[in-house]
Backbone:
């Protein structure tokens, strides 16, 4: 499984899901987007902070771990840090897999582990 | 939940996942792409046929059903029919939801139901 992990201060972009190399039958892109409401009050942005080196290596380790249960062809994770305005993505995950069950399983398990085990924090900006 | 269902003979495009209206915190796009191998032999394309009216209404009904368990903000399904070359998408599903769990649940359950209950067939082209 090809694994790529990045942390960036720039707005995120997505590659699009409509084509693959013909080996992957399932392509999925997910974005976690900042909502206009946090704990019931309106906000304009969230601020994300990370221990960048540790966050990157931890995300890589989690993906490597999950590969045993959810073997996919490739996964790319880009997490934005700094100020992220409402309506913009804080994280984008793209997965290509032979079949959709592994892709959905990896995506869901990775997002759960990310929240628990990766040193990235958010606060109202 | 806004529901949109389409069947088309044209190549599919995706909208991109990196922004939402600020009400949705999870945006997911999935493509089911034609693989270069079917039952162990190399292929160049698959041919999809549908009872179009019935397929459209059945997809709408399934999504309406699933909304009870997985209430999302919007879902759009576009299924391509006719000849779909290897590496191109036969279906694209885009979902926006407040939280990712409903989005992932809807996507996975819809794809399972689609394969069982919607009159769309594929054959090697």
Residues:
């Amino acid at each position: 499984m090809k694994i790529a992990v990045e942390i960036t201060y720039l707005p995120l972009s997505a590659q699009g899901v409509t084509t693959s190399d013909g080996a992957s039958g399932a392509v999925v892109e997910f974005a976690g987007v900042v909502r206009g409401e946090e704990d019931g009050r309106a906000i304009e942005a969230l601020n994300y902070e990370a221990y960048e080196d540790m966050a990157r290596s931890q995300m890589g380790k989690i993906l490597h771990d999950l590969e045993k249960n959810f073997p996919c062809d490739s996964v790319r994770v880009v997490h934005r840090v700094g100020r992220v305005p409402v309506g913009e993505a804080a994280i984008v995950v793209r997965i290509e897999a032979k079949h959709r069950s592994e892709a959905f399983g990896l995506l869901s398990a990775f997002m759960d582990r990310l929240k628990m085990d990766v040193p990235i924090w958010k606060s109202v900006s």
